[in-house]
Amino acid sequence: MPTITSEEAANNVWVVTPSGRVDAALAPGLEAALESQLGKGNAFLVVDFASVSYVASSGLKALLSARRKIKQAGGAPEEELLSDRPLQVAFFLWGLSVVVILYLF
To answer: Is residue 53 part of a domain?
Structure first.
């Protein structure tokens, strides 16, 4: 069953972890989790996609929306970490490889 968790990993660094398919059903929850953390003033966010098997356009929109809000608040979102090759391909196909830095672990 797809889930989204949020936890503090270190000093004001929060990890938001979706699992399963980030599609039209889960993307609003991901966006809400990211907005909740930003609303609490937690601007240091990591989105851990290690347990994600698929990202739909609605999931990408949630990430880009959070990125835009961080930039508007004066933050500097520089990197997104993706450990899964198919997710990297999705980011490349959507033209997001020029917006985010992708890492393969």
So the answer is: yes
- pLDDT band per the 50, 70, 90 thresholds, residue 36: very high
Q: What are the C-alpha distances in Å from 83 to residues 10, 89, 103, 104?
A: 21, 11, 6, 5
Predicted TM-score (pTM) of this structure: 0.74
Domain membership of residue 8 as a residue range? 4-98
Domain assignment present for 103: no
Provide the domain count of the chain: 1
Environment class of 79 (CB within 10 Å of its CB; exposed 0-12, middle 13-18, buried 19+): exposed
Mean pLDDT of 6-23: 88
Q: How many C-beta atoms surround the C-beta of residue 54 within 10 A?
A: 15
Give the distance, in angstroms, between the CA of residue 104 and the centroid of all CA atoms in the same chain.
Answer: 16
Quick one: DSSP state of residue 23? S
Nearest Cα to Cα of residue 59 among 40, 76, 41, 84: 84
